[in-house]
Amino acid sequence: MKRWLGKAETTLGNHSDRINAINIFPVADGDTGTNLYLTVRAAAAALVNGAGGEPANDVGAVLGAAGQAAMEQARGNSGTLFAVFLCAAAEPLVGHTRLSAPLLASALNRAQIRAWSALSEPVPGTMLSVLEAAARAAGECDSAHNGDDSNQALGLALDAAVNAALEAVVRTEDQLAPLHAARVVDAGGVGMLLILDCLRSAVLGEELQDELLDGLHGYDVQDPHIHAGMPNDDGVEVMCTISLPPLAAATLRQRLDELGDSVIMSQLGNRSGHGESVSARDGDDDDDAPETSYRWRVHVHVPEAEPAVALIRSLGDPTDITISQLSMPRDPGIPVVQNAHES
Hints:
Elements: H1 2-21, H2 32-48, H3 59-72, H4 76-90, H5 101-118, H6 127-144, H7 151-175, H8 177-182, H9 187-204, E1 236-244, H10 246-259, E2 261-271, H11 278-281, E3 294-302, H12 305-315, E4 319-325
Antiparallel strand pairs: 1-3, 1-4, 2-3
């Protein structure tokens, strides 16, 4: 897991500029590569620093700690979905000391389901489709080998997942009208493909497949920054963490859907320890049992920040609120990263 996330950090650092260059969906803000890099960096740093004191021989516990760190520091749509992917993938792996083909298939399937459900309006032709294709391929490979948990079967399942992810990335160009018009593939999908190939590389002890991205439209070094020629997107991105009972969380999601788009809500860990109930807020009978609150990571694109922030504050006490303009990348010029946390 440490090798995987270290490789992913280095690889996304080296590819962030080209991923940014083709980032035109859902908004042409040219920061998908940067957001993925920074979120993966947070996950990798958590393992290097021993976050959470998780047992080193429990694959799921270690990956879960990395996922929680990624979720706390997630950036943008792509970073948030990557954090959801990590947290969900960790769940079937808890209690296991090694990865196997059946566990990989289960982890990828759990991750793609959770990622699709985290978005209020999930769209095919994005990193969601890439995740789904990888999970399906790993599952089919595992079934074909009757649940073989050998290292050889794991290698075959990883190869199948990466190959299916590549095919899904190629298909994104024809699944979304903006991508088809610009003749580029989805930026988030490319990032997820690289992350999956880093997993394959770390597990099998093989080099990354340098030719993996050859021929992807818009990804050649000489290609222009497609996003730079797109009209600026009005509005802002609002992100925060908040503790809410499930009913209040559902209410927040519904009302954020009315205010904006690209709504992502995902649970952070287990219960938050706060027991204030929605019924108490609404003045219902005091003898109603309080609902358990959970911590949620919230992401939304809205025309103006104030109504969204006011809505969030009306339901709870948010922390880590960030408001970013959609018309400009937040971290331009991410440098090339060499051998970060490779050991």
